[in-house]
Structures are given as C-alpha cells and as structure tokens.
Amino acid sequence: MTNEGLWDRVQEAAAAIRKSTDTEPSVGLILGTGLGQLAEAIDIETSIPYGEIPHFPVSTVESHEGRLLLGTLGGKHVVAMQGRFHLYEGYTAVQVTFPVRVMREIGVQALLISNAAGGMSPYHRPGELMLIEDHINLQFDNPLVGPNDERLGTRFPDMSEPYSERLKEMARAIALEEGIGLHRGVFVAVTGPNLQTRAEYRFLRSIGADAVGMSTVPEVIVARHAGLEVAAISVITDSCLPDALEPVEIDTILEAAGRAEPHLTRIMTRLIERLVIIGVQDLVYGVSVAVVCEVGYLLGVHESRHERIAVA
To answer: Hey, what domains does the chain have and what are their CATH numbers?
Structure first.
C-alpha cells in the first residue's frame, strides 16, 4: 500500500465501520503488546475484526487480538485498536498507520497510544511507565513518503513538538494525584523484530534514547500530519543495560506489561473522564487532543476546526 489513492481507501474503511455501529467516537486508543486490560475496561458496543474492514491489515503478533472496539470509557465514546501493526510484519509504513487515518475520519479528536519498550536508562525498571518526551526515528521509513493529499494533511508537517507540552503536563499531574510513578524520556523506534545487541544498546543510549521499541513513531508522524496533538507512554518491559544484559523472552515482556496495566488503565480512564467534547459547525477556540497512552486534564485553549474539548 502506498499513498496513491489513500483518501479513497480511508473513506471506504470509514464507511464500513459506520455501517457496523452508531457509535461516533471522539477518543481513539492504540493498545500495545500485552496491554489488553484497558480493553476490558471499555463498555464495548461493537467489535469488528480487522479482516472485515476494507484495506485494514491483519495483526500477526502474539497478544495482539486484531479487533477494532467501539464503546464507552470514562463516559465518552471511544474506538480502540486491540492490536497494532509493525514494519517487521512486512507491512509498509502507510499500512501500519492506516487505522490512524480511519479513526480521524470517523470523528476521533484524541488519540491515546501505548507501547511496550525496553528500558535503557539505569533509573527505569520493568513494570514502570515512561512518558515519551520526544522520539528518534531509526526505522528508516516514513508513512508520508509519496504523493501528499492535502485533505489528509500538509506536505511538510512540523515536528518541533510531536508530543504536546500541555498534554505531558497533564499526564504528570494525573500520575502525581494517583501516586503512580511516571518517568520521562526519549523513545527510539527501530524496525525489529530482533532485540538489540550490546553494541546497539550503547549506540542508542549515546544518541539520547531512554527506551526502545518497534512501533509508535509512524503513528505519531501521521497523527501530527493530521493536525492532532499527541502524548505517549511506554511500559518498560525489560532492562536493556548493555553491561548487565540478559536474554529476554516474550513471556517476561508480557508479565512486566501486566504489572503496569492497572496504572496505565487508571491514568487513561481519568483523562477521558475529564474531557468534554462539544461539536460545532464553524472554527472555534477549543482544545483538540491526541494522546498516546495517558494524559491528564486539559489546560488552556487553542484553535480547532471541528471540536471544542474542555475540562470537565
């Protein structure tokens, strides 16, 4: 899949989803490896297998269910990806990020993304959370390569603030209120699927990365291209200190993710509870939110074309 004809494919997928549900979600969620507990917290009204949505890829990774869930969480209509896609599965960057385009088309204004990541900071421990302050793209691919359709976003989206400063402040505030530890750091995306060597971990650490994973960055690029604000949180699932590196299995990663799930679910649910979205016809002053995993309450306002999101 390339960007040629992308607008039409997005419309077809969105139309198929609308035929299956009356839910009009305002918040989107992307659930990472081993982070299925949040899906259980959603009052699900409709569950659509990816294979039934035109042009959607199909999840091939263990622990990724491969369903689009529509329902309510925190008193708001939401749509959740129970399973995401990765470059290492053989998909293109355009395919990996296609669901983000579709979620925006069906009304999503807030995108919350979570991921599982290896911790390279000596201060991070498996089972802890890290708020992504910035990222480094070492996947050597970009979902915006190719012809640009202005209906989807501008040709040259700014990335000076891929993760909203305001939303990061919100996330820290909620974590503090809940007594949940929340590290801050830089996330680096690699292609995978293999984990890194000792030399590679040393290199990644030397260029400023605190955690490493195989997702999220393409989705954030597309979210920014679409004009969404973004915030993201990683679950640290294994320790990647090169001088104390030990082999890691998928069961260990899933177990660490499971320990973090209650905290992740609590923060995200509280964020959604605080959002009030008011539909309008014309340009208004409001706050449009795209969050990756956990974000706090909204402070301040800025221009949004379609929605006003305020503090409840």
So the answer is: 6-311 (3.40.50.1580)
Residue with tokens 């449009």: 288
The residue behind tokens 């994973």 is: 213
More confident residue, 285 or 69: 69
Structure tokens at 223: 């979210």
265 SS3 class: helix
* Alpha carbon distance, N-terminus to C-terminus of the chain: 41
Determine the distance from the C-alpha atom of residue 1 to the mean position of all C-alpha atoms in its chain, rounded to a whole number.
21
Residue 200 burial by Cβ neighbours in a 10 Å radius (0-12, 13-18, 19+): middle
Token pair for residue 31? 């659930």
pLDDT, residue 155, reads 96
Helix-then-strand count for the chain, H and E: 7, 13
152-179 b/e with 16+ CB inside 10 Å = b? bbeeebeeeebbbebbbbbbbebbeeee
